[in-house]
Specification:
Order of helices and strands: HHHHHHHHHHH
Helix content: over 70%
Distance between the termini: 184 Å
Number of helices: 11
Oligomer: single chain
C-alpha cells in the first residue's frame, strides 16, 4: 500500500528566487553614482559660492569704508579749495583796486606833466581865462562892477607883457568890455554898507525929543555950588532945583512923541536898527525897492521921534538922504566877447 501524501501546510516554503544580475542593474548603479557625484559637486559649488559671496561682502564693505573716507577727504579738500578761492578773490579785488589807483595816479601824473610841459604863453592864456571867469562871476552873482574891472585890467596887463603872443583881437575885446563897464554908474556897495553899520551903532545914542535923563545944565549947576555953603542952604537950593524940574514948559510937534514910555522908546530904537539892517540886506540882494523903503522909514522915524536940533541927528538924516539918492541896483553887461576871444586863442594854440 502506498503511503498517503503529506498536507500542503506541512510542506517546506519555497525559497525566493534570487534576482538575476543584469544590464539594468548596472545602469541603475551608474545613475546613482552619477547622482551622488552631481550632488557632491553641487554642494561644493554652493560652498564655494557662499565663500565667494562672503568674500565679496567683506570686500564691498571695505571699499565702501574707503569710499566714505575718500568722500570726507574730498569735502575737506573742497572746503579748503573754497577758502583758497575766497582768498584769491579778495586778493584779486585788492589788486584791481590797486590797479585802479595806479591808473588814476598815472593819469594825474600825465596831467601834471602836460601842465608842466605847457609853454609860458599857454599858461598866460589859462590865467587870463581864469581872471575873465572871475570877472563874469562878480558881475552876474554880486553885480560888483569894480571887482570885474580890476580883474579885466589885471588880464590886460598880463597880455601886454606877451610880446610873441598874437593877442590883438583878445585885447581889443577886453578894452571894449572895460569901456562898457566904466560907463556904468558906480555902486559903492561896501561904502553904503559901512555907513549903514555906523548908523546902527549910533542908534542907541541918538537923543529923543524928550530927554530920557536929567538935563546937563542942572547937573552943572549942582557942581558949581560953593563948597563953603552951609548944609541948610544947600538942601534948600537942591529942593528948589528939584521943584523947578518938576514942571518944564516946551512946545513939541508932533505931540505924540511926548507919549513914549521907556519901553516904547526901547522898541523904537530896536525897530530903527531892524530897518537899517533890512536896508543892508536889500543892498546886498540888489533889491532897490526894499532898500529905499527902509531908508525912507528910518528917515521918517528920526525926524518924528528924535531931536531935530541935535547935531548927531542932523548928521544921521543927511547920511540917510545921501543913501536914498545912491544907486543900488544896475544891470551889468556881460563879458562874453572877451571870454570867447580867450577861448578861441587857447583852441588855436592847442591845434598847433
Amino acid at each position: 500500500m502506498s503511503s498517503p501524501l503529506p498536507e500542503p501546510s506541512s510542506l517546506p516554503a519555497p525559497r525566493p528566487a534570487r534576482p538575476a544580475v543584469g544590464a539594468s542593474d548596472r545602469a541603475a548603479r551608474w545613475v546613482a553614482g552619477i547622482s551622488f557625484a552631481a550632488a557632491a559637486v553641487a554642494i561644493g559649488l554652493a560652498w564655494n559660492a557662499q565663500q565667494a559671496l562672503s568674500s565679496l561682502s567683506q570686500s564691498a564693505g571695505g571699499k565702501l569704508a574707503d569710499l566714505g573716507a575718500e568722500l570726507g577727504q574730498s569735502k575737506t579738500n573742497l572746503a579748503q579749495a573754497q577758502a583758497a578761492l575766497k582768498d584769491s578773490q579778495a586778493r584779486i579785488a585788492e589788486l584791481e583796486s590797486r590797479m585802479v589807483d595806479a591808473q588814476e595816479s598815472r593819469v594825474a601824473v600825465e596831467e601834471m606833466y602836460r601842465e608842466l610841459s605847457r609853454s609860458a604863453d599857454d599858461r598866460m592864456l589859462a590865467e587870463v581865462e581864469q581872471l575873465l571867469i572871475l570877472a563874469s562871476q562878480q558881475l552876474q552873482l554880486a553885480g560888483n562892477v569894480k571887482g570885474a574891472l580890476i580883474a579885466l585890467q589885471a588880464a590886460d596887463q598880463r597880455l601886454s607883457r606877451a610880446d610873441k603872443l598874437q593877442v590883438a583881437n583878445l585885447r581889443r575885446a577886453l578894452n571894449g568890455d572895460m569901456d562898457r563897464l566904466k560907463a556904468l554908474p558906480l555902486v559903492d556897495t561896501v561904502g553904503i554898507a559901512v555907513k549903514l553899520d555906523a548908523l546902527v551903532q549910533q542908534t542907541d545914542s541918538l537923543p529923543l525929543i524928550v530927554a530920557e535923563s536929567l538935563p546937563p545944565a542942572r547937573a552943572g549947576n549942582r557942581a558949581k555950588l560953593p563948597p563953603e555953603e552951609s548944609a541948610y542952604l544947600r538942601a534948600a537950593r537942591d529942593f528948589w532945583e528939584e521943584m523947578k524940574g518938576l514942571v518944564r514948559i516946551r512946545e513939541i510937534a508932533p505931540a505924540e512923541a511926548v507919549l513914549l514910555s521907556p519901553a516904547q522908546t526901547f522898541f523904537l530904537r530896536e525897530n530903527l536898527k531892524l530897518r537899517l539892517l533890512a536896508a543892508r540886506v536889500a543892498l546886498l540882494a540888489r533889491d532897490e525897492t526894499s532898500f529905499r523903503d527902509d531908508i525912507r522909514a528910518s528917515q521918517a522915524w528920526i525926524a518924528k521921534y528924535f531931536d531935530a536940533k541935535a547935531r548927531v541927528n542932523v548928521n544921521a538924516l543927511a547920511t540917510l538922504k545921501q543913501l536914498a539918492d545912491s544907486p543900488v541896483s544896475i544891470t551889468p553887461p556881460d563879458i562874453n566877447a572877451s571870454l570867447a576871444a580867450v577861448r578861441s586863442a587857447r583852441a588855436a594854440r592847442e591845434k598847433r
